[in-house]
Design brief:
By secondary structure, the chain is an alpha/beta fold. It has a single domain, classed as 2-enoyl-CoA Hydratase, Chain A, domain 1, CATH 3.90.226. The protein contains eleven helices and nine strands. About 40% of the residues are buried.
């Protein structure tokens, strides 16, 4: 499912599994991620950051449609209900990232599709390897409308309307270099190892600033008022400066 390790002042949230695991988001994985984020939040101090990484070929291939079909007992309507249930559960993951009291970095070393791309974009920074992996929103291809918080997240994080149109209405598959040019991610690196190393360097530089986590989280929330409204997050005014 996932693990949380702390090395120095950096938390590593790792989506685990064998090399073929797609890290599809089902209720069990969603609960595991939320538990890890809650633990990181409880242990946060000034000068901490969180990096999310994934084992294998995929960062995340979105919602676990196979689980919904299997758990439905063969009922198409029940499978749809279970999918909607996962959509609602995942909303909490996005809210947790947006309100986490520390900088967050997604290290995308494999494919990130649909809700898997939303998972990556819930972080403050997204780094990606050049040699493998695509970003892809599959909903228009599979016949599924977007949850409101998906749309709000895309509008909050992707500045260019033409990029949002192509990703959401054309279902384009975007590789790392193109993703940088389109403003979908922050930077790209030659391979998985170099991408992880870059993420660690970024976390270490951010940690040197020793920001107050609560203040950091509130400023983050203030950047995305539409998204926070959809997620049900309320901003607070904080003053912790030494006046």
């Amino acid at each position: 499912m996932c693990t949380l390790d702390k090395r120095g002042n950096i938390f590593f949230l790792t989506l685990t599994g064998d090399g073929g695991d797609e890290h599809r988001l089902n209720p069990t994985l969603i609960a595991s991620i939320r538990s890890a984020l809650s633990e990181a939040k409880s242990q946060s101090t000034r000068g901490t950051a969180l990096i999310t990484v994934a084992e294998g070929k995929f960062f995340s291939n979105g919602f676990d449609l196979a689980w919904a079909k299997s758990a439905s007992g063969g009922s198409p309507s029940e499978a749809v209900n279970l999918l909607r249930h996962m959509v609602e559960l995942f909303k909490g993951v996005v809210a947790d990232f947006i309100s986490l009291p520390m900088p967050t970095i997604a290290v995308v070393t494999g494919h990130a599709a649909a809700a898997g791309l939303m998972l990556a974009m819930s972080h403050d920074y997204v780094l990606m390897r050049r040699d493998r992996g695509i970003l892809y929103m599959s909903e228009v291809d599979i016949g599924m409308t977007l949850p409101g918080y998906f749309t709000a997240l895309m509008k909050s994080k992707v500045a260019r309307p033409d990029v949002r149109r192509d990703v959401l209405l054309r279902g384009v598959r975007v590789k790392a270099e193109e993703a940088v040019a389109k403003g979908l991610i922050d930077s790209a690196y030659d391979n998985g190892e170099k991408t992880v190393e870059a993420g660690v360097r970024m976390a270490e530089e951010l940690n040197k600033r020793k920001w107050d986590g609560e203040v950091y989280a509130e400023i983050r929330k203030s950047l995305y008022p539409e998204l926070c409204g959809v997620l049900g997050l309320v901003s607070r005014d904080l003053v912790k400066a030494r006046l």
